[in-house]
Amino acid sequence: AMMSTVGFSTDNAFTTSGVMARPAGLPCGALATLPGYSASNSGFASIEGSEDYNLALSERRAMTVYNFLEANGVDMKLITPVKGFGETEEHGAGLEANRVVVLSFNG
To answer: Taking the CA atoms of the chain, what radius of gyration do you get in angstroms?
Structure first.
């Protein structure tokens, strides 16, 4: 399985650059044309803020990535619906490592 991570600014559902550019390793073209591929779209948040707020923030972050994929021709039937984990699961060590959306590709 391949994984791509998109980083976000603190308390924000916009990417760290402010613009949703194709993240390194994000194979939009492959997902648009290769049969048998699927991806899960999971949002995370750091522990700053309340647990309820961070859950909603992680879902907004995952939706940002979902919308980007859809706008770039990816067959959205291949993408698992948006899932936000908030701060309930850690993706990595430190605050910044948890302000992300993780796309896990299978196929």
So the answer is: 13
Between CA 101 and CA 91 the distance in angstroms is 9
For residues 60 and 6, is the Cβ–Cβ distance under 8 A?
no
pLDDT in tens, the chain (107 residues): 567 777 887 888 876 655 455 544 455 555 555 566 677 888 888 898 899 999 999 888 888 888 888 887 777 777 777 788 888 888 878 888 888 888 776 65
pTM of the model: 0.77
Q: What's the DSSP call for residue 7?
A: E
**Sheet order of strands, 38-43 included:** 2-7, 100-106, 38-43, 83-84
Cα separation, 85 vs 27, whole angstroms? 24
* Residue 31 CA neighbour count, 13 Å, CB half: 27
